């Protein structure tokens, strides 16, 4: 077996070399076998995994954007995607096949994104729980039509699901850096990537339906009426059904926005209240700066997963775990990146995430004035670019700067309010009593048991800046999903009421490909200004931070407080 597949591989490489040599002499544009259009053709013909054979570090291997990126390797520049830098995903135990997810190769160059015609009808995305049966029937039909397309069609449901795997499981490498997996999660690309992904998914659906105004429904798990799986997804006869979901979470079970693996025993009413507190913390308290909400900078040459924004950790990750089937090895489908897009509920889930991005920009502007920065201005963010196939199966290069304004993309959200806007969580009296008996902690520390650390607050700067607790050097085991909680001024954290104010932040990962012994290295941030005000600790010189492991192996490199302006 091994011998014959090896022989096949050698044959393919031979074919590749022959074609590459021919290409170099024949085609005027192809100065080397790495030149853009030529190697695409060859790759499309041979089916080889591009990054094993392309010319790593060769600056000629890219179109303009990628060119730039490889020149500036390690010293910044935007992240640029290139189809030829997609190969096998990183290894993962027991994936549900097929575990192979590059976007289809094409012989034509990607076209640059252009905005839709402003005369196009505005698509109104509505909440699934009240979108009405006609609207939901359209989504059902769209998914059925996508599932009926041949697997080779980039618009098929199969290929659409694979897009998520390609960008999130180590299949794509950074152009020019075969050693660096391109991972859009836990970075400032999280929101723009998913916006673009849904934008094209929606337009493909509209085209197949012959309904130019078609809009995705969204799963509004943050508002009480939407806090359960919408009924249409639970009908085994529907194309929206997926058997790989947690059987305990079928409707009318209320979703738990802090779910990891254990069922809570709250009443529906308590669960709903707690969910609203979680939303307030993640959308308001902890999200006062673009980087806190959107995620940490990720430049060309950087290693993956510098740090997620608030909403990505929770409720985004937690709702992936809540929806997936916990009895599957990697919580497939929804609970792990490579397979999440296979569940038709993924798209309404992410429409809600996208709606929260839009809501956050609006909240920031209305509470802090129109001058408030809601986007990064770093050109490396604005110029980072990703590839998608559009409704006509053309490959399109989308830059983050194209994805900032939903109005320009001709869609909007309607139908639900923001009931968590003022749901400021309550404090718990008498949870901070043991403050004088702190042992000192030597970092890095393995978080096997809860640790409490006294962290000194630096002198505040003269200008108003956000005070941020940074949990740095987090090393979380890839092979499991990992959770720890961060409490502030709550030595007796187990007495904090569920969802209470002292629970300042929650860190959650899904399983990552990369092999048993691998760890993901990342960081986490918790905003302190509103929190310390609520805890009556605004004038203290230090705070007690308690890190509480909930699941999985994790090491913490250190804790510090910094003032951040953006
Ligand atoms: Cu890209 Cu919800 O994960």
Q: Could you describe the 3D structure shown?
A:
The chain has 566 residues and is of the alpha+beta class. 30% of the residues lie in helices and 15% in strands. The protein has 14 helices and 16 strands. Strands 8, 10, 13, 15 and 16 form a 5-stranded antiparallel beta sheet that branches. α10 runs antiparallel to α12. It is globular and about 65 Å long. The N terminus is likely disordered. CU-O-CU linkage binds next to α6 and α10. One of its GO terms (molecular function) is metal ion binding. This is Tyrosinase copper-binding domain-containing protein. Keywords: Copper, Disulfide bond, Metal-binding, Oxidoreductase, Signal, Thioether bond. One of its GO terms (biological process) is pigment biosynthetic process. Belongs to the tyrosinase family.
N-C termini distance: 57 Å
Indicate the structural class: alpha+beta
Kindly state the number of beta strands: 16
Give the oligomer, counting copies of the same chain as homo and different chains as hetero. Answer: single chain
Helix content: 25-40%
Low-confidence stretches: 1-6, 19-38, 51-74
The largest pleated sheet is described as: 5 strands, antiparallel
Strand content: 15-25%
* Overall pLDDT score: 88
Label the overall shape: globular
User: DSSP helix count?
Assistant: 14
| SSE string, helices as H and strands as E | HHHHEEHHEEHHHHHHHEEEEEEEEEHEEE
Radius of gyration: 24 Å
Ions, cofactors and other ligands present here are: CU-O-CU linkage
């Amino acid at each position: 077996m091994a011998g014959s597949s090896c022989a096949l591989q050698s044959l393919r490489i031979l074919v590749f070399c022959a074609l590459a040599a021919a290409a170099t002499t024949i085609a005027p544009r192809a100065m080397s076998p790495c030149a853009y259009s030529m190697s695409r053709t060859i790759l499309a013909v041979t089916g080889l995994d591009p990054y094993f054979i392309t010319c790593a570090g060769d600056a000629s291997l890219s179109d303009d954007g990628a060119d730039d990126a490889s020149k500036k390797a390690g010293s910044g520049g935007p992240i640029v995607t290139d189809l030829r830098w997609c190969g096998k995903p990183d290894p993962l135990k027991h994936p549900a096949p097929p575990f192979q997810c590059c976007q289809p190769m094409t012989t034509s160059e990607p076209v640059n994104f252009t905005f839709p015609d402003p005369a196009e009808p505005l698509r109104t995305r509505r909440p699934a729980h009240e979108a009405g049966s006609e609207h939901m029937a359209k989504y059902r039909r769209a998914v059925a039509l996508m599932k009926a397309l041949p697997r080779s069609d980039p618009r098929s449901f199969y290929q659409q699901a694979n897009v998520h795997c390609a960008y999130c499981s180590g299949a794509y490498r950074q152009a020019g850096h075969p050693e660096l997996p391109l991972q859009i999660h836990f970075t400032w690309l999280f929101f723009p990537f998913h916006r673009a992904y849904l934008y094209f998914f929606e337009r493909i659906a509209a085209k197949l339906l012959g309904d130019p105004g078609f809009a995705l429904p969204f799963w509004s798990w943050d508002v009480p009426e939407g806090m359960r799986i919408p009924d249409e997804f639970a009908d085994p006869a529907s194309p929206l059904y997926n058997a790989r979901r947690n059987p305990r979470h079928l409707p009318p079970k209320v979703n738990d926005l802090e779910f990891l693996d254990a069922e809570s025993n709250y009443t529906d009413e308590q669960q709903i209240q707690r969910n609203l507190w979680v939303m307030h913390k993640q959308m308001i308290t902890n999200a006062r700066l673009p980087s806190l909400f959107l995620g940490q900078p990720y430049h060309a040459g950087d290693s993956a997963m510098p740090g997620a924004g608030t909403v990505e950790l929770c409720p985004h990750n937690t709702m992936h775990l809540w929806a997936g089937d916990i009895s599957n090895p990697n919580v497939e489908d929804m609970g792990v990146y490579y397979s999440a897009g296979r569940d038709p509920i993924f798209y309404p889930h992410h429409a809600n995430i996208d709606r929260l991005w839009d809501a956050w920009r609006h909240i920031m502007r209305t509470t802090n004035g129109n001058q408030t920065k809601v986007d990064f201005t770093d050109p490396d963010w604005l110029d980072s670019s990703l590839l998608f196939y559009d409704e006509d199966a053309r490959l399109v290069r989308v830059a983050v700067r194209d994805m900032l304004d939903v109005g320009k993309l001709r869609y909007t959200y309607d139908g639900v309010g923001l009931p968590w806007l003022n749901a400021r969580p309550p404090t718990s009296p008498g949870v901070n009593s043991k403050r004088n008996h702190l042992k000192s902690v030597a970092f890095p520390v393995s978080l096997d048991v809860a640790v409490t650390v006294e962290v000194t607050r630096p002198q505040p700067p003269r200008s108003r800046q956000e005070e941020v607790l940074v949990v740095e050097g987090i090393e979380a085991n890839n092979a499991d999903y990992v959770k720890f909680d961060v409490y502030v001024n709550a030595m007796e954290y187990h007495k904090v009421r569920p969802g209470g104010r002292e629970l300042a932040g929650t860190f959650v990962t899904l399983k990552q490909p990369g092999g048993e012994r691998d760890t993901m290295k990342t960081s986490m941030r918790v905003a302190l200004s509103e929190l310390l005000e609520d805890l009556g600790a605004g004038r203290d010189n230090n705070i007690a931070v308690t890190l509480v492991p909930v699941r999985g192996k994790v090491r913490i490199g250190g804790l510090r407080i910094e003032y951040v302006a953006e």
